[in-house]
Amino acid sequence: MQEQMKVNSSILERFEFRDIRQEEADQAVLIEKICFPPNEACSEKHMKERIGVTPELFLVAVDKTTGKLAGFLNGIATDEEKFRDELFLQTRLLNNPKGKKVMILGLDVLPEYRGQGLAREIVRCYLQREEEKGRKEIVLTCLDEKVEMYKRFGFVDQGMSDSVWGGEEWHEMTYYLG
Questions:
Q1: C-alpha distance from residue 114 to each of 5, 65, 70, 142 (Å)
Q2: Dihedral through CA 140, CA 61, CA 25, CA 177, nearest 10?
Q3: Is the Cα torsion angle 78, 47, 111, 24 positive or negative in sign?
Q4: How confident is the prediction along the chain (178 residues), in pLDDT tens digits per residue?
Q5: 99 CB neighbour count, 10 Å cutoff
Q6: Strands 15-18, 58-63: pairing kind
């Protein structure tokens, strides 16, 4: 990985990190609605489709004391060169399990778990896991106010994305693995 992010052992003790389970789909839908405004949030239909098609591309953080999801990261594997809005809507058609890239579709952390390093640890674990699978790049889009956070995580700002998801202007950011 470009620059190793430091492991947060207290987060690792408090949370279990793993693939999502089908029975957690309703929790994921609710968390998405809490974390994103309606114009940006994944619909219930599409979230459940993603979970059904690509559960191995979700990384959930489960609070060990409650057994509930505190947050998650999800993506789609592909060999596409650029991030495009169809990735959000056509998981079944566009996912390529052997793809060398993962396009991140969302990072969600419930408000009560923010500011504790959980998002950073979810990203760190995800990057490590996908590198072990042989992926070469992780690509995401974010709004202006998140660019510096993702730079601290080791992502490189590629400029403005072709994506106009939710009627917004997004930065496309890449993390180079291996």
A1: 18, 17, 9, 17
A2: 30
A3: negative
A4: 445 577 878 888 999 999 999 999 999 999 999 999 999 999 999 999 999 999 999 999 999 999 999 999 999 999 998 898 888 888 877 899 999 999 999 999 999 999 999 999 999 999 999 999 999 999 999 999 999 999 999 999 999 999 999 999 999 999 999 8
A5: 17
A6: antiparallel
Phi, psi of 40 (to 5 degrees): -110, -25
* Cα distance between residue 70 and residue 28, in whole Å: 9
pTM of the model: 0.92
Compute the distance between CA of residue 173 and CA of residue 30 in angstroms, rounded to an integer: 26
Helix (H, G, I), strand (E, B) or coil at 106: strand
Q: Which residues of 25-63 are buried (b: 16+ CB within 10 A; e: fewer)?
A: bebbbebbbebeeeebbbeeebbbbbbebbbebbbbbbb
Contact (CB, 8 A) for 138 and 154 = no
Contacts by residues 78-81 (CB-CB < 8 Å, ≥ 24 positions apart): 78/102, 78/103
